Amino acid sequence: MKSQNPSVPYTPEEIATEALAAWRAGAAIAHIHVRDPVTGSPDSRNELFAEVVERIRGNSDLIINLTTSGLNLSGPDAGEQRLEPISLQPEICSLDVGSLNFRQRVFLNPAEWVEQAATRMREAGVKPEIEVFDIGHIRQANHLIELGLIADPPWFQLCLGIPWGIEGSVESLVEMHRRLPQNAVWSVLAPGPLQLPLTTHALLLGGHVRVGFEDNLYLRRGEKADSNARFVERTVQLAEMLQREVASCDEARDILGLAGASS
Predict the structure, then answer these.
(1) How many CB atoms within 10 Å of residue 115?
(2) What is the C-alpha separation between 227 and 243, in angstroms, rounded?
(3) Strands 218-220 and 208-209
(4) What's the N-to-C CA distance of the chain in angstroms?
């Protein structure tokens, strides 16, 4: 919230501006949530997503990844509402596999809804970003792959250190990586002070990384970041130090097997 860091974006214009700044800093993908423009509370209105998408597409070749988490939704129609961002034809949508106690609430992702979401994404030509918060979630994701619901290569986001998912340790990262399908493309996220060490280890292991305000407000101890781009700039510097070439948007499309890939 802005009360925690005034640079956190609320409006579609602010969110798109942050995404474009991250793109200019070297990011290939922007993972998008939307908020009530006044209060900053999580929102899922498709018109808010649509404005963000329009603003990004009109000014960049950034790969857009819209959330389907539906953080503010409940009731019998919640599952269907969560899938509305697919209608905007982003190249990627997040797909949360498995339920968990997410801090002080229950993050519900019933198996039936997960299969429905994977099916709808495949039919629409949208790549799922498979978000997994624990070992069992990887097992469930592998089942979706076996059912033919996930196109190759599967794209995993390993989410570590989220209470109460898998702990944020190097041992946990290595174990999650070990359990992935051989042809998986994978990335790592971690919250707060865990972000820098775990994304650095992901780079060392050959993976990709997600950084930014959704997971962290501080660039370093005692210093709040003034933009998502600051996290991206640091990651680019780390990648260059570790001799990992940072992918352009088109190179990322090739890596992920997206329909718009240059190949």
Answers:
(1) 15
(2) 25
(3) unpaired
(4) 41
Tell which residue, 101, 57, 110, has the closest CA to residue 82. 110
Place of tokens 């709808």: 120
List, for residues 62-108, the tens digit of each pLDDT value. 999 999 997 777 777 888 999 999 999 999 999 999 999 988 888 89
The enclosing H or E element of 158 equals strand 155-159
Write the CA distances from 149 to 55, 80, 104, 140, integer angstroms. 31, 18, 31, 12
Query: Any idea which architecture 12-256 has in CATH?
Result: Alpha-Beta Barrel (3.20)
The encoded tokens of residue 48 equal: 């808010």
Write down the domain spans for the chain: 12-256
Q: Report the alpha-carbon distance of residue 251 to residue 237 in Å, rounded.
A: 19
Q: What pTM was computed for the model?
A: 0.95
